[in-house]
């Protein structure tokens, strides 16, 4: 870092991982970055303090627990000293919930919140003592980049009492509002390890069929939001002949890299941030992170901006494409619950469902396979157990058996339309359920 005017400040804050977490006191409230931004060395050092009884108890907030968090603060021999709170149930959380059900002992609490509101939560509601996050190397201006993680990280970093960063040379440098200055950081550690590699899910036949039905709804020049999974992969494959699509998305994924390379995504027609790929969190492969690094077309912003319904609505022809766990005959959508337990969370789905419906020429599309559990259950059901998206906001619904638009339809028309795209094996019982309550 020779010649960098901020190198002295950097060096004065540089410590080993165990030294960096040493000031954390009993009972502190700690937040950890999402997914790829989870700092493995810092988390391991903090878990060691808890395991050794040097630290007795902490309160923890996080979203999307991946391997670094699962093997440290959420590990079975550590979790009893952690009051764990998640904003989105995923990964390691599922095993923890199963354990709760089996033993009757609660170890994980879920905090319902729209992704757009999460930065406000960590800046105004939850008093954060310490925030832990992975960042890119410092540039000549003294700035680290949050890289894959803006989400609530940029807000937490600026509102916590103590900011500890783990500098990883593999974290991409991303533009937009992703920068944290060395003067804002309390402690720095360095750790050169590969970022977690999460390639795109391969599309299946159902995903490809759904993609062929959804693609015609996406006009050339549209701005899109698309998630990850087999169905989104199938939709992405069906967009290869489109032109001048733009990205304003909660999640940037490997599928989008391919569409950018093929010239499908250019951003030239975007109403806001033309020619820029705007996102708030990225999860992908090593290739994805390399493609993002120092790429001036990429801009990340906090989820309070990217997921803001008012910002989404300013884009003409905004097409939001999401999936769901189930949808009922009234048009209510459940993207959170399976059985009696939280399985994921609202995330940013409602933000984009509502925002796209307010966009000039915009469309909200919910795409899901007609069955789950290897065909054992229907994803179109008489009544959902938890409502993520209100029936008043739901527009297009697509399965491999067809696509319907619920906007403007009566409850009877909605029920019949949804039954028509349910798996044939479940249509008779859905008709019977609808007749039982005189829905049809």
Level-2 CATH architecture of the largest domain: 3-Layer(aba) Sandwich
Q: What is the makeup of the main sheet?
A: 9 strands, mixed
Q: Indicate the radius of gyration in whole angstroms.
A: 22 Å
Number of strands: 25
**Cross-sheet strand order for the largest sheet:** 8-14-13-12-11-15-20-24-25
Structure described in brief:
The chain is α/β, with parallel strands linked by helices and 440 residues long. The chain is built from 16 helices and 25 strands.
Question: What can you see in these coordinates?
Answer:
With 440 residues, the chain is an alpha/beta fold. The protein contains 16 helices and 25 strands. The protein has a nine-stranded mixed sheet, sandwiched between helices. A seven-stranded parallel sheet has the order 4-3-2-1-5-7-10, with helices on both faces. The protein has two domains: 7-190, Glutaconate Coenzyme A-transferase; 205-436, Glutaconate Coenzyme A-transferase. Helix 5 links the parallel strand 3 and strand 4 (108-110). The mean pLDDT is 95.
Q: Could you give the topology of this structure?
A:
Blueprint lengths: L6 H7 L3 H5 L7 E4 L7 H12 L6 E5 L4 H4 L11 E5 L5 H12 L4 E3 L7 H8 L4 E6 L7 E3 L7 H7 L2 E6 L7 E2 L2 E3 L5 E4 L14 H10 L8 E4 L3 H8 L8 E7 L1 H8 L15 E6 L3 H7 L5 E3 L2 H4 L2 H5 L4 E5 L3 E3 L4 E2 L2 E2 L2 E2 L6 H9 L5 E5 L3 E2 L4 E2 L1 E2 L14 E4 L2 E4 L5 H10 L6 H10 L4
Parallel strand pairs: 1-2, 1-5, 2-3, 3-4, 5-7, 7-10, 8-14, 11-12, 11-15, 12-13, 13-14, 15-20, 16-23, 20-24
Antiparallel strand pairs: 6-9, 16-17, 18-19, 21-22, 24-25
